Structure prediction request, 198 residues.
Amino acid sequence: MNLESCQTFSSIVLWVGIALTAAGTIGSQYIAKRVERQKEQKANDKQQELISQNQKLLEKIELYQRDLLEKDKEIKELDRKAKIASRGITSIYDFNGTKRQTTPGSAKVSVGPEYDVFKQMVELEKAKDFSKLIELCEEQIKKTPDWLTPYLFLGVAYANTGEKDKAIANLRYVVDNAPGDPAYAQAEKLLQQLEGIP
Prediction:
């Protein structure tokens, strides 16, 4: 091999070396950029997951705070009613809609429009006209939310129209607000049937 051939061969080897070095540099930069992008993507994914978890946690906290406010209102209302009752002041509706009011030293019983509504509820239940019974009961509950009988009839009507959850909610309200009252014993029996309690 002559000197010129050796120089040409050396030149080729040098250029191949330079090309391989350049390719290696470009390849390693490409790989480094891909690795960096993957790291960034994982970091973004993790950040999005944390944001989502934080959002869910905030929603739970807000719900809990609303529940606390509702419970606080209920406690204040119960406290108010207890103070009134401790003074001997009551105002309740009997099963048939008769209003009974007591104050220290006096008692008053009055028959108002609720008595006529009671008769209508009885007739609608006998006639099995549950859609009209539902309508009448819901309207009456808006007018006299303290009278438990419309809740009872509403529970019965919902039970007969297949709306079990609504029936249970109304009957539960009656049972919770008239514990031990024989006039509303039917509510507890029907509630047990709907809840599958023997």
Residues 112-195 form a domain with the Serine Threonine Protein Phosphatase 5, Tetratricopeptide repeat fold (CATH 1.25.40.10). The mean pLDDT is 85. The first strand starts at residue 90 and ends at 93. Residues 3-86 form the longest helix (84 residues).
